[in-house]
Amino acid sequence: MRSMADRRKLHLTPWTAALIAILVMLAVLFLMPTIGVLLSSIKTTRDIALGDLWSIPGQLFLGNYAEVLSNPAVHRYFVNTLIVTVPATTASIGLGVLAGYVFAKLPFRGAGILFLAIVAGMFFPPQVILVPLFRLFNGIGLIDTLWPIFLVHTALGIPICTLLMRNFFATVPNALREAAILEGASEWQVLTRVAIPLGLPALAVLATLQFTWIWNDFLWPLIFTQSDEKRTIMIGIVNLKGQYTVAWGVQGALSLIASLPTLVIFLFFQRYFIKGMTMGAVKG
Amino acid sequence: MARVTLENIRKSFGNVEVIRDVSLDIDRGEFMVFVGPSGCGKSTMLRLISGLEDVTGGTIRIGGRDVTGVAPSRRRLAMVFQSYALFPHLDVAGNIGFGLSLARTPAGEIERRVRDVAERLGIADLLTRMPRQLSGGERQRVAIGRAIIRDPEVFLFDEPLSNLDAALRVRMRLEIARLHKALDGVTMIYVTHDQTEAMTLADRIAVINQGRIEQVGSPMELYHHPANTFVAGFIGAPAMNFLDGNVDDTGAVTFAGTTIMPAQPVSHRGSATIGVRPESLRLASTGEADFVARLDHIEPLGAETLLHFDTPLTVRLNEEVPASEGDTLGLVVDRTRIHVFPP
Amino acid sequence: MERENRFWRVVLLFLPLSVFAVFVVWPLFSSFWYSFTDWNGFDPNYAFVGLDNYARIWTDRLFFGAIINTALWMAAAILLPTLLGLALALLLDRQLRGARIFKTIFYLPICLSAIVVGQIWTWIYQPDWGLLNAIISFVAGEPFTHAWLARPGSALWSVIVAWSWQQTGLSMVIYLAGLTAIPSDLLEVCDIEGASPWQRIRRVVVPLLIPSTIVVIALSVINSLKGFDILYIMTGGGPFHSSDTLAMHMYNESFKKYLMGYGSAISVVLFLIALVIIGFYFRQLKRIDEIYG
Ligand SMILES: Nc1ncnc2c1ncn2[C@@H]1O[C@H](COP(=O)(O)OP(=O)(O)O)[C@@H](O)[C@H]1O
Ligand SMILES: [Mg+2]
């Protein structure tokens, strides 16, 4: 019986076996690149140079990690990235909450068009605004500081944050807002006491998306910073390539360490993230 | 066309037994209604018959053929879902003709048969509409259309009217009854929690409670001779009044402070639950009262009036009453309509 | 009430709208302005040069290469992850022990940055000891040393594969979410009507996943238009500009050659392409909204 029950439950048949075989093969294929880096990071440069990057090492070598973690430049990159990522994530979500709330609960004439215009901002390649922004920040002397990166990420996060928050707030019944207002709550109190607590799953989605996006970004720090003092981690990886030209293992360790924060954030928010995706995203 | 036989059907989800040893014979062309409170297992029964769920134990036969392990599509049945289950991406014609097009029926034939069915259901001018553009009643008709085009031997309905408003529900109820007459010999199995629907549609009703059949019979059989308090309380509205009572050695029944000799002899002796339907009671003229009770609340419904007494007891009258709340009134019990249920 | 609403609208919208206006809308329009100038990036004086930059586009052979590559890149970078993600979601949408682990494995690359992904895949494509050549050598039984990223014929495609590897998990997650949203009675109708597994996927599941597809494609378009980082790290647009995209070309002209005016003209073209895609997208969205609500 292929049936509803069947869509969920599987009995071990040749089909199921084939299915599992396919999945395992794909999973191995998908894991291979990551495993390669992992392997490289626990091998000595000599081993790798001998053409032995992809095999399981006889013993665990942690020298690459020690090298990376003791490098003061890496510390600086990390701190710089955090200084940009956390505030920009928070700020863009905050602004998205404000705008999303208005579009969902306080609609006005022309709100639809304005909303579309903001959401459309999501689709533009950032290169389009690169030159003017460079000139702007150059003009006010902010080039080679972290400020432009923070400001641009905050601004570019507004479309997606507004979209998701509006979609989420739209699912909060109007009656809740009206009841709170009858109780004497101000609009601000409705937002902070009713809407935001209900919106936590959506906030988790946005926190994951924005943190990952900003942490991993390469373009803006590349354009807006010049000195090594102000570089972020992704630029740092590229810069350190020169220093560790054939030290593949160190490069691998660095890549993994640089990816750790986003991995942790994802695993931490995973459940909310997938749930929130269903709620917010599917109803574009 | 086909008789449906259930033999010792069981169904468990995990270790929760949802259907417990149900056996039932449904005749060819019969309109069988499963009725019972929400969660009693009606939908599960229907899904077992359709093959959407596998039985844990027992045998299902359709037209004499053992279909217990047969795929749903090979059971020659059609199902109408509570939610209508129309495909949002197909228009009305596409929805009705879905099964035919799966079977690679030539386009011309599909079109002809779809039109045919649509005309019978009065939705021929909706064929190019999308489901979203239809009202509840129209969607219902499309769902029925998709069922009849397959020429099934057995029709399964799972609470098909529960998403409609009251007026439409009455109309669709009549249409389904008419459809059953028109589709000569087609067996229909219909699930509802609404006893009115059950009474008005059914040839026979199976009252289900906690995965068991409590009683099977024609609507009037169940109304006049309920096998137990569950059936008695479920069939008929407003529900039957139950009072603690006693049957003495002569067969006289004592309850609510009065002793009455029922018109039909009672075999049970000793303490019992006495059932009296609201329509089996009337207000007494002077001197003839069996007992008196204080009137709590009056519900005037227009054609009839419901009186709620503090006993507690509900009385249904076909006329308006001059009494007012708080009055103490005399009541008379119809001797032929006293139900005695052993404890 | 309406007066208060107006007050709150202004208060709440003020900050988001001003930030958006200053750092997104205004630069967007200035891009148009700079595309008519010969600004070089540091000189405060620059001249208005009319349509010179646009005229130059017509004679820029690299530009046309970049346009073709952008089209190729976008088509592949949208199609591959979408189809793969759909296939994975269909495979994983059942009660399977360990399904969660599979999902996490397929999703993990999304957490990695383009830089890290680029680095990983650069190693895979490495001619001498890269994994890909090692496997090919092993299967073929003779040494194979194709320099995947250093040959004009394979550079762009090699990056596209790396990109798909990273993006597939995202479309898979969205499709999985979409699959759970399909009402089970619609699938039961398929059982009763006797649809084959293939018919059920093609005639019912895939059409019902159109809302998810819209989201997947939107995200793919967004991400692939931005597809700059991974190309920058893996090929830098090379060899011989064979993997240049518009974004890459624009960066080179603006920040390597300091032709900010010309770079702006290229970005205006990029903007117009994006505009066409957005217009098309929103039209589809409206149509689909009418069907699926
Ligand atoms: N797929 C399932 N898994 C577990 N329990 C179920 C499932 N389907 C139904 N049940 C349980 O079986 C009982 C009967 O359900 P159902 O047949 O839907 O009742 P009804 O249709 O009479 O309201 C309920 O208690 C319900 O929770
Ligand atoms: Mg039910």
Radius of gyration of chain A (Å): 24 Å
CATH superfamily of chain A: MetI-like
SSE order of chain B: EEEHEEEHHHHEHEHEEHHEEEEEEEEEE
Strand fraction of chain B equals: 25-35%
Count of domains of chain B: 2
Total helices of chain B: the number is: 9
What is the domain total for the residues of chain A?
A: 1
Largest sheet of chain A: none
Question: Can you give a write-up of this model?
Answer:
The complex is a heterotrimer of chains A (284), B (343) and C (293). Chain A has 284 residues and is an all-alpha fold. Chain A has a single domain (74-277), classed as MetI-like (MetI-like fold), CATH 1.10.3720. Chain A has 14 helices and no strands. Chain A starts with a helix and ends with a helix. Mean pLDDT of chain A is 84; it is low at 1-9. Chain B is an alpha+beta fold and 343 residues long. The radius of gyration of chain B is 24 Å and the shape is elongated. Chain B has helices spanning 42-50, 92-96, 98-102, 107-121, 136-148, 166-182, 195-201, 219-224, 229-234, and strands at residues 4-13, 16-26, 31-35, 57-62, 65-66, 77-80, 154-158, 187-192, 204-209, 212-217, 241-247, 253-255, 258-260, 270-276, 281-283, 291-300, 305-309, 313-317, 328-333, 338-341. In chain C, helix 2 crosses helix 13 (260-292), helix 3 packs antiparallel against helix 10 and helix 10 (210-225) runs antiparallel to helix 13 (260-292). Chain C is built from 13 helices and no strands. Chain C has 293 residues and is an all-alpha fold. The chains are: A mainly alpha (284), B alpha+beta (343), C mainly alpha (293). Chain B binds chain C through residues 50-52, 71-74, 77-79, 81, 83, 85, 87-89, 98-99, 102-103, 130, 132, 146, 150, and chain C through 183, 185-186, 188-189, 191-196, 199, 203-204, 207-208, 210, 290-293. The site of magnesium ion (MG) has 3 residues of chain B, from helix 1. Adenosine-5'-diphosphate is lined by residues 13, 18, 36, 38-44 of chain B.
